[in-house]
Give the backbone structure.
Amino acid sequence: MRILFIHPPPWQIPAPDQERKEFSFPPPLAGEHLKVIDLDYLSVPYGLLSLSAQAKRAGHKAIVLNMSNFLWETVEDIIRNNPADVYGISCMTLNRRGMAAVAECIKKHHPEAHVTVGGPHVTALPRETLEHYPFIDSVAIGEGEMTLLDLLDRLQKGESLEGMPGIMWRNADGLHEGPPRERIADLDSLVQPQELYPTDVIMTSRGCPGKCTFCASSTIWGRRLKFLSVGKVLDSIELAVRKHGLRALAIKDDTFTSAKSRALEICRGIRERGLNFLWSCDTRVDYLNEELLYEMRLSGCQRISVGVESANRDILANICKRITPEQVIEATEMARKYGFQIRYYMIVGNRGETLQTYKESCDFIEKARPNKSVFSILSAVPGTGDWEFLQSGGMKSDIFFTSDVPQFEFFAGDLKDRDAIWNDVRDNSFRDHWEYGVADRRRVLKHLPGHHAALMEMAEALFRAGKLKDSLAYLMQSLQSGYPLPGLGLNLLAAISAAAGDLHAARVHLDNAMQDYPFTVLKRNRETLEKALAKGHSGVLRLDPSTEFEITLRLEQPMYPTLEEHVT
């Protein structure tokens, strides 16, 4: 069978000459009508790649298309000209309206095709989705790979979906739901996306040990964690690094270090296989220790992001976070010892939130000294404890089908403080806090002597301290030691040249760096340099020397929503 998997836009994105009234699922009235620029959303969902990989192994012709920021006229043109037997659409709360628009468009142009939808949003609201959108034929509930293969097999044979686990579907008699599908017992049995796709995302497990009220992880994965074997994880990483040439990866498990001994094996295995790349992961402060952090850093981990959410103990208890501020500080200090970029995720508006508790969290961050923090406003997501809390107060799921807002932000704390907190967060959600100085980097190098990334970070710290000669010496050591992102090293070399007044050399270094990969910092520096040269500037010029970790997005389908003239 021919299957087209689609990552849809969040709504019908108009061309400049189109008006909102022309669409069934137009942009929000709030004015968010332009193309989406959030990289997390623009990146293809890992689950779609996994579904496609399983379908291909089963002998089907599968295509994944990332249309996450395509103009609607382009979306419709692609769907019109690409018939398939089955269309599979990914759906989260943010793109629920774009999903519905794509499904409606498919039925308009290919009425005999089967349209199935999966993802966290519809897993939590399968019946409501089918009731509101008659152009959707089925909804996959929970983990999708085996459900997809079962669905394709039955459709190919012309068999009924009656009794099929993990799915809700419609036929002439109405809506029907099969029994729950058991979790996949052996994740190693799945084809890993890296076998087919150059994705910079790695997932080594499914599920989370936490039970936070704002998170819908258990809706998809259930309460029990499942793991790929260490060998399978290392094989997937090796494919990404050696087959696809990726040198920056993101491990996107809910909690990568949930099994610390296993995480240690993965880190040691990376070094034993000689896999040279940089990586990041998300985790919890209560699932870290010094031995693990040391091995993570040696194996290339540059950044850890941890959910802190609040520094107020009552709020932490209300959201079932099961951590303490003391654990956050302890984990941060351990990570700082080895030079990690440390990022806190924070959520405002939880039950018990006041202006005072918000200030308490802000003051705590300044005391704990992470490198960065990301503040988010609490959102109602189906399948979470917070959504159940809202339902108990009378909230109906119809809001997800009648409202055009992308996210359902709400404030469960003291309402008189809501606007002051929200305004501050909206104006300042991404925050820089603390940066390593030369002395800090020297201490890190004592623990990681000769480590290529630690040497590069020392070079950057020395540059910022105005010690250009010393910076250059450490930069060259790092590159000679095999630093895996030489483009960032060349960017620092350009900054050193510009600071010494040699703008011609700076331009050459930036041009060479762009050949490695067009990092964001390179684009900014090239623009700064070209503007200066256009104005006849000569002499010293300040460029950004940042070597901060950055995922190198593949600017190609389906990794990123680049437009192709034809889908084949």
Residues 168 and 177 are 4 Å apart (CA to CA). Residues 201-432 form a domain with the TIM Barrel fold (CATH 3.20.20.70). Residues 520-534 form the longest helix (15 residues).
